[in-house]
Amino acid sequence: xxxxxxxxxxxxxxGKRVCVVGASGKLGQYLVRHALDRGYEVxxxxxxxxxxxxxxxxxxxxxxxxxxxxxxVIARAVRGCDAVLTVLVPWGRNHYSSGTAQAVLDHAxxxxxxxFSCGWHITRDGKDEYTRRFRLYAAVFGRLAKLARVVDxxxxxxxxxxxxxxxxxxxxxxxxDLEEGDSEGLPVWSRHVxxxxxxxxxxxxxxxxxxMVEAVENDALVHEAPAIVGRLxxxxxxxxxxxx
Length: 244
Ligand SMILES: NC(=O)c1ccc[n+]([C@@H]2O[C@H](COP(=O)([O-])OP(=O)(O)OC[C@H]3O[C@@H](n4cnc5c(N)ncnc54)[C@H](OP(=O)(O)O)[C@@H]3O)[C@@H](O)[C@H]2O)c1
Hints:
One of its GO terms (molecular function) is riboflavin reductase (NADPH) activity. The chain is 32% helix and 19% strand. It is α/β, with parallel strands linked by helices and 244 residues long. α3 packs parallel to α5 (153-165). It is globular and about 45 Å long. The site of NADP nicotinamide-adenine-dinucleotide phosphate has 23 residues, from α1, β5 and β7. NADP nicotinamide-adenine-dinucleotide phosphate binds at residues 22, 24-28, 46-47, 50, 53, 87-89, 91-92, 96, 117-119, 175, 177-178, 205.
């Protein structure tokens, strides 16, 4: 087979640049690693105080320190990028999540692939079916976190609403509960929570990142909000035949 990368390396990212917004977190660092493995040039954005967390990538990535919801920081970071991978965290009470999403939507170049992360609680079309336990947990956790001014889940909902309404080439990857551990391979996905394939509700963080990076080159995922689950989980093994 002919090598597919533009420089003849056969790597899908050869000659392309991606930006990882929120690069210093656990998911962010896996995103950086997968992107480098695929030959992409990587630009990472993280808070100034977190730059040392990326020391292991020194010399291999460009780091732009700053708040991820700062339009000037994002404008600089996404310049010339073919894709932007955004860890959409709903921290604090200052619209961090929606501010981050908006900055990416406003400044990524037209036609760039935009891949965002969030949890299963986000629904695109209202057709997700959540268990009573999940709804109760989400309601209680959301309320307590908001009261404590730590996490604002409503702002992540708003961030995703803006992404869904945009005319960009977006994918919103909706993750199950995450765990550490060796890769099980590319997670399986479904359009809607409630699909039995997702019942195990568990994905390795390394594979969540893998799914996001693979989505960059997968046009079938443009304008999709795949809910994902680990491919070796019991529910995926039992039902993956019917899933995407
Ligand atoms: N059940 C789950 O846990 C679950 C399921 C599905 C999807 N997700 C998604 O996974 C993503 C994060 O997961 P993770 O495992 O990578 O978590 P993580 O390692 O804790 O990363 C969290 C991110 O939030 C940033 N952050 C932490 N405190 C902050 C603050 N006070 N202000 C601004 N930014 C702050 C971190 O940046 P610093 O390095 O600068 O601290 C880092 O980029 C989110 O997009 C979440 O929606 C989670």
